[in-house]
Amino acid sequence: MVWTKNVSRETASEYRDSLTESLVGQYSDYSEQYPVVNSIALDRSSFLLDAGCGTGRFLAHTAPGQRFVGVDLSLEMLKAAKRDLGRGYFVVGELEHLPFEDQKFDQIISVRVLQHVANQAEALNELSRVCQLGGGVVVLCLNSWTLHCVYKNIRMSRLGKVIDLPFQLLLGNRSMFSKWPYPYDSYCSMPELCHLFEQAGLMVEERKGGTLGAPWFFSYFYVGRIMERIAPILLRVFFRICFFVEKRLASVFPFKYLMDKIIVRGIRQQ
Predict the structure, then answer these.
(1) How many CB atoms within 10 Å of residue 100?
(2) pLDDT at 2
């Protein structure tokens, strides 16, 4: 999905449904939610910001009565979140220019958003600015030390255009090497993300990996769609095994540096 201010209501609904209606989407969603939700305080006393909340899938885990704010570039995404959750506050905004006063929130999460921001250092500075002293910031982004990143870089390069030609003839718009949908998409390695945290005055308290089952491969190469038709039980078992292994290796060296996604939690120090 191309993430812009002009996302339609239909596209917002399609995004939400993509994470619930297929086994690949369910695995991708749960493999992100589990490590992030377990890294933040979900209680009534904690004021939470979801920076880049989309349709509010993480905010659905907040405790009854907990105060939270969701900010996103897309108004339609925020409307979908408000319809689904029925509570909370939602604000249109950008990570590099958050419309909040200093030290406003106790906990902040930002999931798969930083890679779409041109000035990542400024975005981390903003997350740090609006976080209370001693509060926590959790960021999940895609890892640059993976085949996923290599595949993305090929699609964003001139080489990708050459590779795409035969696939366009065979598959048309469904080619898995068509132009990458994002104008800017820069993944981080674990050391790079930790360095951004430290620059923003956030002491790194936790770092871990997430997602072994390569949902990008299953999606882009139509493997997931085929498997769901001919062997859904096998695909479900595969993802369960992946998640079982993830939980045990997510914080273990060197596996945490090589998983498809990386999660870093930092504490606001200054």
Answers:
(1) 16
(2) 43
